[in-house]
Amino acid sequence: MLLAPVAQWIEQWFPVPCAGVRFPSGVLHGTMNSSDALYHKEDKNLDDFREWLSDNLRYFMLGGAILIIVLVLFFGVRACVGSNKGNSGDGQKTATKDQGNVPSSPTNEGESDEKKEDANSMEKADADITALIKSYYKALGEKDIATLKTLEDDFTPSDESKVTNLKDYIEGYEVGDVYTKKGMTEDSYVVYACFSYICQNIETKAPALTQFYVYKNSDGSWIIDNDAMQDPDISAYLEKQLSDSDVAELVTKVQNELDQAQQKDEALAAFLNGLGDESDVSVQAQNGTLLTVAEECNVRAEANTDSEILGVISEGEQVEKTGTDGEWVQIDYDGQTGYIRGDLLTDGSESDTSEDSGDSDSEEYDSQDSGSGEEEQE
Fold it and tell me: What is the pLDDT of residues 201-242, one digit of tens each?
């Protein structure tokens, strides 16, 4: 009986917290037994749970939907990534397999050769190499034989004679840009020296280009290999470098400069065109003509500088011409057929020699004779 007024008082003063409280009807009337109280208590708890579930069901459903979406996205992305990895691996294998089969494949287009060329590209020479080349041309212009012997290995008496004879044609040399490419060994280079001839009584300089092979000697100094062209391996290596695009561009550039110089100065063109006339005299001479040796020179077994040397003929000796082979004069030497370069021989009393005079082991071309502005030293 006392509980009813209490319940009403609670509902009156605490309406919000107690709004959901339901008192069993038996309690309000003040009469109930223990079993009924237990039954009504369980019923009350069940009703409360249902009401709570009903109020919060939408939140459960929303959370579940979000969880499902997250799982779907997670597994979907993972499946896509795995598939792409598989395709990428197959693509790489296919690309590798087809590398040598596809017509446009770099390996079939000579890209490997281009890479090799790039690996040995032409570069500006360092200070030591540049100093060597400048010292060489300075000594060559001054006819400084002692210095030349320190800069060039195997400097022979014939080389000395050749340098001395240049005084009638060349006043000096002016060195320009110097470039290098890697040589056959770590301490060697192929050198390309741009320079100009200062010709006797000619105002305009004649652009030219020289290819050298240099290496470090035992004391660590750079030196010019005078016998490079006599070595088959080095000779082939030098020849191969001439076909590289960067070297070909340099040769073309120098040749264009030479052509422009000759167009500008007719005297220079006439001077260069006149070089080699002495060799024409001996080559055009009739068979049986006695020719005079302009300076000590080699007699070769064949008409080229790579052939066997049969012997050496001293300056002033006379030989009988028996035939010709290009620019070479054929003679009879100790019962064998021998060859001497025509520019080393004069007809009768003529003793002048051309700028190109030298022994048969040395080929030095001015820019006009080479057709490419290149001076080749062997």
Answer: 899 999 999 999 999 998 899 999 988 888 899 999 999 998
Please give the structure tokens belonging to residue 362: 């040395």
Average pLDDT over residues 244-258: 94
Task: Output the CA angle 356-360-361, nearest 5 degrees.
Answer: 100
CATH of the domain at 301: 2.30.30.40
CA distance 306 to 230: 7
Question: Which residues share a beta bridge with 231?
Answer: none
Q: How far is CA 123 from CA 175, 177, 178, 179, 240, in A?
A: 17, 11, 9, 5, 17
Whether 332 is in a domain gets the answer yes
Residues in the chain: 378
Instruction: Give the chain's domain count.
Output: 2
| DSSP secondary structure code for residue 229 in this structure | G
105-145, pLDDT tens digit by residue? 444 555 555 555 567 899 999 999 999 999 999 999 998 99
Query: 378 to each of 274, 311, 360, 363, 370, how far by Cα in Å?
Result: 24, 19, 10, 6, 14
The residue range of the domain holding 130 is: 123-273
Phi and psi dihedrals of 204, rounded to 5?
-80, 135
Question: 318 and 177 in one domain?
Answer: no
Asked if residue 189 is part of any domain, the answer here is: yes
Provide the Cα torsion 86, 88, 92, 97; round to 10°: 60
Q: How far apart are CA 336 and CA 138, in angstroms?
A: 42
Domain-embedded: residue 72:
no
Residue 22 lies in a domain: no
User: Alpha-carbon distance 76 to 368, whole Å?
Assistant: 76
- What b/e readout covers 311-333, taking b as 16+ CB neighbours within 10 angstroms? eebeeeeebebeebeeebbbbeb
Cβ–Cβ < 8 Å for 196, 206? yes
Residues 6+ apart with CB under 8 A from 147: 135, 139
pTM for the complete prediction?
A: 0.51
